[in-house]
Amino acid sequence: MSAFSRRALLGAASAGFAASLLPGLSARAAAPFQNTLPPAWHRFRIGEFEATIVSDGTLPLGKPEPAFPASPPEEIRALLTGNFLDPGAATLEQNALILNTGKQLILFDTGMGESMGAASKMFGPTTGRLLANMRAAGIQPEQIDLVILTHAHCDHCWALVDAEGKRNFPNAQVAISETDLKFWTDSGNKKGPEFMTSFIDGATKNLGAYRDRMIMVKDGQPVVPGIVALSTPGHTFGHMCYAITSGGTTVVNTGDLAHHQILLLRKPLWEFSFDSDPKLSAQSRARMLDRLAKDEHLILSYHFPWPGLGHVKREGEGYGWYPAPTNVTAL
Ligand SMILES: [Zn+2]
């Protein structure tokens, strides 16, 4: 073979090599998107207690204006865009706390669940993930000793039972204010906004399955040692926050005291469409936020950005939200 033809052959081979290499490279770059997320749970300590936050999934509200009917739309838009949030859609989280006190395993609120068929998906397909996330965090529903409810709305108590009405937490008692228990299981309250009928049907089905094992919580009183109920009426008439104290540390589970970390902290007196008494709700929010800011307690907020832990600080006529670091190696 002549030198010329050998070069020609090598040239042809290297051209062929390059040609075969390029598709290979592009194939590696075209790895499929994963399109999955890890289970959503976060674990930390509150004094001697072990706390785990599990998500029930995001709860999209859609256009924010109808949720804040008494607020100027241009102010809503300015607050959202000014904080790098989508002005066309408000998205809430659902951050449920599981507390191991060393004596009891306690779940605060249950998420939307699947007990009410199509109504369970009234906020779309992203809700109803609490049980799966709980199991992923190493906690079985049968281990829960007590479910403490902030209030009896769908996104807080509709996973007490499954679609057949069977208890999801077969060994648990349920603690709730007597006011909310009575109001949301009374068919006479099916009036006013359209959602009232399904909210009452859902609460009746879910709470009814635990009627022989209920604990009535009272303002200022411990539910169990280390957990004190704080009456904050308005969102519902029996809405409760819970102060959790262990080893000199206090975390306040604020439930639905405020639904949005910008709109209802910057404007605590704004009214929210799902409030039973919007003006009373605003008063409770203003009063409790003032206390939480002064005491500088860590807060767990059910609907704030995952995992809902942070502090509030007085700023102007409202409050700023300061998310707590969620370290991945420290416990
Ligand atoms: Zn809620």
Task: Please summarize what this structure is.
The chain is an alpha+beta fold. The chain has helices at 3-29, 73-82, 130-136, 154-157, 178-184, 195-208, 263-266, 278-295; strands spanning 41-46, 49-55, 59-62, 90-92, 95-100, 105-108, 146-148, 173-177, 214-217, 222-224, 227-231, 240-246, 249-255, 298-301, 309-315, 318-323.
Radius of gyration: 25 Å
> What's the CATH topology label?
Metallo-beta-lactamase, Chain A
Give the H and E element order. Answer: HEEEHEEEHEHEHHEEEEEHHEEE
Shape: globular
Structural class call reads alpha+beta
Mean of residue pLDDT values: 93
Order of the strands making up the biggest sheet: 1-2-5-6-7-8-9
- The CATH architecture can be given as 4-Layer Sandwich
CATH class category name: Alpha Beta
Unreliable sequence segments: 10-19
User: How many discrete structural domains?
Assistant: 1
Strand content: 15-25%
Q: Please outline the major beta sheet.
A: 7 strands, mixed
Number of helices: 8
**CATH superfamily, please?**
Ribonuclease Z/Hydroxyacylglutathione hydrolase-like
Work out the helicity level: 25-40%
- Gap between N and C termini, in Å? 72 Å
Ligand identities: zinc ion
Domain Metallo-beta-lactamase: 93-303
Protein name: MBL fold metallo-hydrolase
Pfam families: Lactamase_B (PF00753)
Family: Belongs to the metallo-beta-lactamase superfamily.
